[in-house]
Amino acid sequence: MKFTKLLATAAIAISTATVSFAQETLTISSWAPPSHPMNAEMFPELIRMIEEATDGQVTAEIKYGLAPPPAQMDLILDGVADISWIFHGYTPGRFVATKLIELPGYQGNAEAASVAYQRLHDSMLADLDEHRGVKAIAMMTHGPGQYHSSEPISALSDINGMKVRIGGGVAGQIGAALGMSGIQVPAPKVYETLDSGAADAVTMPTEGRKSFKLVEVAPHFYQMPGGFYRGSFAIIMSQERFDDLPEDVQTALEENVFGEPLARMAGATWDRADAAGLAETEAAEDNSITVASEADQAAFAEIAQGVIDSVKAEVAAAGIDADAAIEMIKAEMAK
Questions:
Q1: What percent of the chain lies above the pLDDT cut of 90?
Q2: Which of the chain's termini has less CB crowding within 10 Å, N or C?
């Protein structure tokens, strides 16, 4: 009888341990509104991918308001959350090679750019260890960044002297070259910055016209074919948290979720968000869309070359063949 009870106790203990791990939940910290495509679409899909890859042993939940956007990496380092996403331009000086994907001139959507970026990172950038302390589980970029303003921009020269909210990185360098006065605030502060008149315009992808309600406070949309820049992001995870997972779970995540599968999915999410932002703009009666003239496109290409050369010099100083990296991005996007 005692032996039977011991077996039963052991069985319960094993079952409890299995259930305990089956309910392992990772905490995702996010700083954009819950309705933002990264939170409404990308992270839920990431959770589904994690659950599928691990046969339901691991899941995740999204939490908001844990820290402002620039502090997300420190949040992961401190163990407050397990996964987050960071915009490299919010921490100037910390990231250099990430500027390569932000340069204007690439042809293609966010999915193509994100996959190309991931492949570039894996082959040429990872050894720089710019994300030291955390695990970069995917690289991604939003679609072409454009200008959204309270007053119409009819020509490239109109940007000269404007007060423009920028996110940082190459967007700021391009803006400075165009003669704007930069105001650096995180994306969640864009609406109030424009609504208060503190800025005349904002640089963002088309997605922001819906996600951040730019149709209300920046009714005029000035498009440069190919964009003025792109935004560089990483989805990061606590290295310590990852290392604590069983080896088979780590392998499943590495092979089926992290890296290119996640980069591709995230980029595709940005593309759908751009389409939604454009549709929102076209449906708003008081919104206007102006596409840069051929003359302004040529003028911008000349101005942008100075920024491209500056970034190439920064990247070269870090030990990366900038020309080879740029050519790789173009070739991968063309695929």
A1: 90
A2: N
Beta bridge partners of 27: 61
**Which pLDDT does position 6 carry in this prediction?**
42
Question: Sign of the C-alpha dihedral, residues 99, 105, 107, 109?
Answer: positive
- State in words which class domain 145-229+285-316 has: alpha beta
The dihedral formed by the CA atoms of 260, 37, 277 and 307, expressed in degrees to the nearest 10 = -50
pLDDT tens digits for 154-178?
999 999 999 999 989 999 999 999 9
Strand residues in the chain grouped as ranges (E): 24-30, 58-64, 83-87, 134-141, 145-149, 163-166, 181-184, 201-205, 220-223, 232-238, 288-291
Tokens 């996007």 belong to residue: 333
Chain-centroid distance of CA 67 in Å reads 17
Distance of CA 175 to the CA centre of its chain: 20
Kindly report the average pLDDT of the chain as a whole number: 93
CATH of 27-143+230-273, one of 3.40.50.300, 3.10.50.40, 2.60.40.420, 3.40.190.170: 3.40.190.170
Per-residue pLDDT of 127-159, as tens digits, reads 999 999 999 999 999 999 999 999 999 999 999
Q: Say if residue 9's pLDDT is above 70.
A: no
Alpha-carbon distance of 34 to 45, in angstroms, equals 14
| Maximum Cα–Cα distance across the chain | 91
